[in-house]
Write the structure tokens for this entry.
Amino acid sequence: MREEYTLETVDIPTLYNIMLEKQRNGYRLAQICATAFEGYNELIYSVAKEYKFENYKVILPIDTEITTISDFFPSAMLYENEMKELHDVKIKSINPDYNNKFFRIKKKAPFKKEVKDAVKVIKKEEVAE
């Protein structure tokens, strides 16, 4: 027996359709992970069935909204509330939505990375040795 593992980058509407199809075919939600980058978040949705593990990655610009999948994967609300609170991911219709009261944290969206206006790229040749 050998485990299968896939990672596919998809757009938001495709992700929603895939997640609905996977739920209907008996997959379970394994996890949703967010990673912050400057100006965007990378979200990875993982589903599993038997020894098959599938991952779907979405590149989400900072202020782009995504729809919840908690309607058909109820456990998704835990991951989605976490992403909303820690990364400031805009997620529509989480059920239930803890409205940024999921964690007791001092700083709003501590993992969010804003786009920096004044970034100077220095070429290796310009660096004095």
